[in-house]
Amino acid sequence: MLNLTGKNALVTGIANNRSIAWGIAQQLHKAGANLGITYLPDERGKMEKKVAELVEPLNPSLFLPCNVQNEDQIKSTFETIRDQWGKLDILIHCLAFASKDDLSGDFSQTSRSGFNTALEISTYSLVQLSGAAKPLMTEGGSIVTLTYLGGVRAIPNYNVMGVAKAGLEMSVRYLAAELGAQNIRVNAISAGPIRTLASSAVGGILDMIHHVEEVAPLRRTVTQLEVGNAAAFLCSDLSSGITGQILYVDAGYEIMGM
Q: What is the CATH number of the domain that holds 141?
């Protein structure tokens, strides 16, 4: 029943085979979506080569550099989508960054530049990319982003990223309210802790994962592909009445009091 054939999907945030974005891309491809992949460019082209080799089996029809701190690259990305695809149906936002120095120690000592960078990349980029996608979603669409429990509760060593995720979740609601008139749905998946390149910057990530495995109702944490399945659902017609929501995919950990 879950069929994304004929849908054009742009996936951001793939860094390696542990990325949650990679799990999402695989499941969108499995459901029949036509994929476009963006990567974070670097001077030596290492990321381009790594991501290109990883996603090759998914046969993406677009493979584009896109640093969300670069307005020209964002503009170029969506102009290419317009010229080559004509429309966009799905936007997957898996972008987050905070300096490792701002993910430990006292939150009150967060640097001004670190705070601004975390919110620009992790929060504002959703607003930015959604605004660019809006005119291309001429037949409606689905926008999905990734959040974490640290956006609603204080989590050790999450610090400024918790503030960024709180802002991201509120952005989901405001974007859903704005874009709903065009039949564009906006939702977030709050995934349980997964060992990824991004999460490795969070001190004690392995302890967090082990704690979830002990406490969560399912007595385990989740996988990238399980998050990918949830994302594919949110991008499909099966979720046509769902927007502005935070869907927890965390083996049930969020419901527990102790």
A: 3.40.50.720
Domain assignment present for residue 204? The answer is yes
Three-class SS state of 168: helix
Q: 144 Cβ partners below 8 Å, 6+ apart?
A: 24, 90, 91, 92, 93, 186, 187, 188, 189, 231, 234, 235
158, 174, 248, 253: the catalytic one is: 158
Contact between residue 169 and residue 152 where contact means Cβ atoms under 8 Å apart: yes
Number of domains in the chain: 1
Question: Is 174 considered catalytic here?
Answer: no
Could you confirm whether 148 is annotated as catalytic?
A: yes
d(CA 124, CA 171): 8
Is residue 258 included in any domain, yes or no?
A: no
SS3 at position 210: helix
Q: Judge if pTM exceeds 0.90.
A: yes
Distance, in Å, from the CA atom of 148 to the CA atom of 160, rounded to the nearest integer, reads: 13
Full residue range of the structural domain in which residue 134 is found: 8-251
**Set 148, 174, 248, 253: catalytic member:** 148
Determine the Cα–Cα distance for residues 28 and 94; give it in Å rounded to an integer: 14
The predicted-structure confidence for 8-21, as pLDDT tens digits, reads as follows 999 999 999 999 99
- Is residue 3 included in any domain, yes or no? no
Least confident segment among 32-46, 89-103, 194-208, 210-224: 194-208
